[in-house]
Amino acid sequence: MAKRAPPVAGPVEEIRIANRATYWPVAPVDLLVAAPLVARVLFRASPMGRRIVQAVTLGAYLGSVARDWRDRRKIRRIVFLREFGADLRHLVPMPREAREREVAVLAARLNDELVLERIPRREAAVAIERHLTDYVAGITGQRVRTSAEVRGFALVGLALPFALGACDVLSGDVAIFRDVGLLEPHIIAHEFSHRRGYWNELDAQVLAYQALVASGEPAFAQSALFERLYRNLRVLAGGDEAEFQRRLATAALRPELREPLGSLRPPAGRIAGRVDAGMRRVYDARMRVTGQNGISDYDEGFTNFLYTFETSATARQAPPPAGALHRRAPASP
After folding, report:
1. What's the pTM?
2. Average pLDDT, the chain
3. Distance spanning both ends of the chain, measured CA to CA
């Protein structure tokens, strides 16, 4: 098996991104939206006073954003195609038979190695930030340290009912919108990847997975494998919710694994369903406008990337053993 490429020669450089806005008691964007109303209701501010409050809030937000932008300019970003043999535009589609086998292997492994202990969110976030830092530093030679703050609410969650978490790409503010059980460490790692400046959803999915399976923490590796299983099931279902539920039922998962995935379904009700579908189309369009492949990057793109990486003969990195499901192709002579 190919060995992992050695880290960049020389001492490891450390970069700190302040993420000051992530320590505010309220999500920065929420504060920007609510500042005029709060000034009016609580302080009976005049129109001029409300504008002053809004200007002060906006100034603090932009100040935090400017500092983070300056710090991120020092980062050496991972060249995914060179390091992993895959990127947004270079993916080998996984054969359906291989995807079916992945589901069977993942289901059996998750059943056998089930870890029910839940690490408190704050403690988990600190550990995940450290593991993500270590994994990326092993490739780039830079230890990029960020905030480990995670919110439990942000207004954007109301606009994106299908989303499980979000990161404000300007301030790095991260929120998790609902309790997703065993999937939560992967979602936190995904959003923390955005916080480091990896804006593409596919890149964030990949870095979250690799960092967690390389962490040596059973609960974190389990979360990454659980995410991989979930995304494979979504691809096989082809967007049909009934088919997804059927495949989930036939995967023979333990109840502790089956129930969290079964709860990740579109909202009930005609109006709620239409709103959810409409916002998915808007989000898909937004991703395409920014050069991504669309919302499919979360599942089909993600699982195809892992398949491409794990079977690549050119990738400089080797997949962490805890997360690899395929044999690497032999290198060309």
Report:
1. 0.91
2. 89
3. 15
